[in-house]
Amino acid sequence: MANQEDIFKKVISHAKEYGYIFQSSEIYDGLSAVYDYAQNGAELKKNIREYWWRAMVQLNKNIVGIDAAILMHPTTWKASGHVDAFNDPLIDNKDSKKRYRADVLVEDYTAKIESKIEKEVKKAAKRFGDSFDKAQFLTTNQRVVEYQKKIDAILKRLGKSLENEDLADVKALIEELGIVCPVSGSTNWTDVKQFNLMFGTKLGASADSAMDLYLRPETAQGIFVNFLNVQKTGRMKIPFGIAQTGKAFRNEIVARQFIFRMREFEQMEMQFFVKPGSQKEWYEAWKENRMKWHLSLGLGEENYRFHDHEKLAHYADAATDIEFRFPFGFKELEGIHSRTDFDLSAHEKHSGKKLQYFDHEMNESYVPYVVETSIGLDRMFLAIFSHSLQEETLENNTTRTVLKLPAVLAPTKAAVLPLVKKDGLPEVAHQIVEDLKWDFNVVYDEKDAVGRRYRRQDAVGTPFCITVDHQSLEDQTVTLRHRDTMEQQRVAISEVKGIISKEVDMKSWLIKM
């Protein structure tokens, strides 16, 4: 476990040192669980958002995008159920005075059992070598089967208790499992209580007439209230989708794990409107589509898995998470939900306006069903960043820190380096920057020996370094160095743009889906 913690600490310090993420208002000692994206972080975040938008909106002729306001009429949140039911179960430890999410304490407990299963699998894989059948081992090894049974039983009971709002049983479960406070090490727990996660604010000039509003806790409702506007103005035929990216706000009890759980975060959501009765097949189709999108980035199939929900929200008839292997274990990255007609029906009821679709083929009106895909942009950032950060031992026994970001997402695509700061080399380098900047983010770097500059660009995650030397003046060629392999090739200056394009072009990555 310490090893995982050490890796995560390195991720956090690397993000700061190389201009990806800063603590918000750090000069005033920061604000808990609020972060700023720095110069490289803002670029990486923008590229991830663009990669999602291209795949979701541009490549689908029946999906359009909107950008709804953060502030919405307060009845929106009554209709959506957030005013009454947007709660997390919290529990305090009386000795440390620390507050925790009760369900997360239980999930962390089962994650420890999961890591025991992983250890058994690793041991067996070593023992049996090439003949090892993982699927068979998981279903036949007595110890592993017992572990899995225990996990399933715990999560089933937790799901049932939360569904029935039996908070006393959630506390009983924590006590029966002997879960201790990570700070005090004691089991001296308070009762479990519900806590509403919405941030309140006010609209209006004077205190007496101000209207109570909320900062939106999700972006989906902006889509639902605009369903008819988009459908009519875009002349959309069912099935069709509406996508949007934007900020959401949750007053998290326990905001932790860096940018994994924040109070101000960004979502990328798409609501897909379908004919009632067809939702199951669309749910399966979107599960497959979204997993393909994740895999197109090349972070490794073994780092993703589906986790079907034991406890379904009252409006859903199916729900799953795509989980990713973060440095602190498998955690939710994206949710895919079959939401039935709950949202549009609820807004129809509370607004008194009809939110129905007239199907010309069937010659009837109905409230469409919805299949949702919802991914946290900050979590996606963390998944990519933490997976890409690697320490490598080289042939000469030195090590290098390299951020192997997918080239398509890297903030800077190339660094142009004159070998020395004289003899006309900087002028050639500056000319290359001028030519390339219309197509890519490029930087110029002339400080330090060229080897140190390579290391710096490796750590920042720049896929290419272009070195201008004395030969460049004679034959118009440069050395092009690849970050991942450190391979160097001599290429004509006129070819550089084409080579980089091939590696970083979104089309060549998305076509893998």
Q: Could you please describe the fold and organization of this structure?
A:
The chain has 513 residues and is an alpha+beta fold. The protein folds into 3 domains: 41-73 and 197-391, 2-Layer Sandwich (BirA Bifunctional Protein, domain 2), CATH 3.30.930; 87-194, no CATH class; 394-510, Rossmann fold (3-Layer(aba) Sandwich), CATH 3.40.50.800. The chain is 41% helix and 24% strand. It contains 18 helices and 23 strands. Strands 3-9-10-16-13-12-11 form a 7-stranded mixed β-sheet. A 5-stranded mixed β-sheet has the order 20-19-21-22-23, sandwiched between helices. The chain has a 3-stranded antiparallel β-sheet with strand order 5-4-6. Helix 5 runs antiparallel to helix 7 (142-163). The radius of gyration is 26 Å and the shape is globular. The mean pLDDT is 92.
